[in-house]
Hints:
Blueprint: E1 2-10, H1 27-39, E2 46-47, E3 56-66, H2 72-82, E4 87-94, E5 107-116, E6 129-131, H3 137-145, E7 149-152, E8 167-178, E9 181-188, H4 195-207, H5 215-222, E10 237-243
Parallel strand pairs: 3-10, 5-6
Antiparallel strand pairs: 1-3, 1-4, 2-3, 5-9, 5-10, 7-8, 8-9
Helix pairs in contact: 3-4
Amino acid sequence: MRRFKLVLEYEGTAYHGWQVQPGLPTIQGVLQAILFRMTGTAVQVIGAGRTDAGVHALGQVASFSADLRLDPLTLRRALNASLPRDIVVCQAEEAPPDFDARRSAQSKTYRYTILRRDYPSAWLARHTLYASGPLDVGAMAEAARTVIGTHDFSAFRAGTCTAKSPVRSVMDASWRVAGDIYHFEITANAFLQHMVRILVGTFLEVGRGKRAPTDVADVLASRNRRCAGKTAPPQGLCLVEVQY
Length: 244
C-alpha cells in the first residue's frame, strides 16, 4: 500500500462541495469513484479543506493510500484522463505513510474576489461576487487587520459548524485592488465553516459605510453570529494554497 499526495484545481460550480454527500456530485466523490475503478477497492481521499458548494480551488491538496503500481506522473495523467474537465490534478507525488492532507497542514490561504463596477460580467459571474456600488477599500483593509492574530471566531462561524473549538490563528488578512477586481486574501492555521464568507460579508458592510472598521473588533468580542454581516455567496471564494 502506497501513500499519495495530489494538488488539485477545480471549478466548483457544478459540485456540492468537497465532501461526499449521498446522491449529490462532490469533488471527493468523483475522485473516489475514479480510484475505485482503477484499483477495484474503495479508496478514501482526504482533502485539506472541505470547500462548500460552489467554492473553487487552485491549490486543494488531497491524500490517499492505494495499492497502485503507477509512478506519480503516470497516475496524474491517468486521473486527468478520467476526471471531468472542471477538476484537474496539477501535481501527484508519493508521500510518507503518515501524511494526511488535512491534519498535516500548517496553514491555508483563501481568496475572495469581488467585481466592483457599474455592470456585471458574463465571463466572471461564476468566480466573483458582483458589487455595483462604491466600496471604501481602505476601510475594508483596516477592518481586515482587526482579525489578524489568535481569536475566538464564534461570530464568524455557521450555525451548523461542528468544529470543537472556535479559536483560530490568522496570520494575514488583506485587500488588494486590480482595476475592477477586489481581492481579499486570508491565511490561517485553520478555518471554521463559512468563516471567510462571513468575514467578507461583514467587510462589505464596512466598505459600504454601514459599519465602521473598528466595529469588527466588537463583533469578534461578541462571539455572536448575529452581530456579524451576511454570509457572502460561495462563487467568489477560492482555496488558493495549503502550506505544510
